[in-house]
Amino acid sequence: MMKVLKRLGRILTNNFGLKLLSVGLAFVLWVIVAQISNPVGTVSFSNVRVTLINADQLESQGKVYQVLDQTDTAKVTVRAPESVISTLSASDITAIADLSEVSEDGTVPITYSLDRAERITADHDELLISVDDKKTKYINIQYQLIGDVGEGCVQGSVKLDRNRLEVSGPASAVDRIAYALVTIDLDGAVKTISADMEIVLYDATGVRVENEMIVKQTEYVTTTVTVLSTKTVPVYASVTGEPSNGYLYTGDIDVEPEVVTIAGDTSVLNNISRIDITDPVDIGGAKTDTTATFDLSKFLPNGVEFEDKTMDPEVSVTAYVEKMMEKNLNISSSSLLIHDIPEGFNAEIVQDDEIAVRLVGLQTELNAVSSESLTGVVEIDSYLTANNLTDIHDGDIIAVPVRFNLSEHVKADAVYVKVELTQIGGDI
What we know:
Helix content is 14%, strand content 47%. Strand 5 and strand 6 form a beta hairpin. It starts with a helix and ends in a 5-residue tail after the last strand. The model has no long low-confidence stretch (mean pLDDT 89).
């Protein structure tokens, strides 16, 4: 046995240098062949995502963090055989940042790994974050309207399904938020708008606050904007009472403004032709024009409002009162008309040709009456019947009142004329 081992030793040590060189050359040859058949190369991936772990440790301390400068995405270069490179994707590379290892300056080491790689390098090996206290607060939700509604329409009430919003996130960012805003586009709208509108956050100077770490209670708010039709209608008023003795209500009443434009649903406006002030102006005992003011909004029908929301709803109503004036005229009896002659009789006015008439009324209307324009009617039979004067005979002369054709605001003192009745064909 010992002889065998000695012989084997001599074989191994004989020309040992040449044998060692042969082994080395064989290895080099193997490497060269391997490189030729499966060469080593490099490939870069620019969208490798860094996985953050142990974030709950920061959250348990009431902290929030934000990744800075997009350091949670890395460009990674891998050196590996071509057979490996051809099968790789960015998802095969593991990049981990342990947030429990964050330093005071906000840096966290990133560990990259890939089992099949000879070497792996990245454009940065640290994650940069900002750490802040977590804060929650409530802010008011405001709205702004842009654009104009369609022709013949007007924007009505605006309602939001919530007026306040809870926001939370980094204290430095949350402290900047002054209000939330939704923008509603009314351009060309002819009917009520109801939609979910995005809530946008702004600071006190009107600059939008954008921070991915801010969490809103909701991203949208349901808004309803009523769009109404419009219609221009007159305003009517009335009077009550009687002026003082010797004075007369002229029948004229002024309303200022005399027309208003109202807004409401089309079906409601179709039934409205005017706005009535149902409280009358009291002219009882008045000797001069009487003016009263009213809040017109109190007389608008349900579901109706003014087109102009800034309009002063107060209206002024003036009822005109004038002193009654007197005018004396003389008219010819031949200008009177005889009507309603009893059956079987002829009738004729028998008295002086001139008849004196005293008129009282409004000056402007008295001025329009003259002896030539004043006409009167003598209605015989209706007068006889009303006064139970049925026993008439041939040749009877009866005093019958004259009804003058006058305007509403002019009156005449009672005037009677003598009328002779002549029987046709003898006594009755």
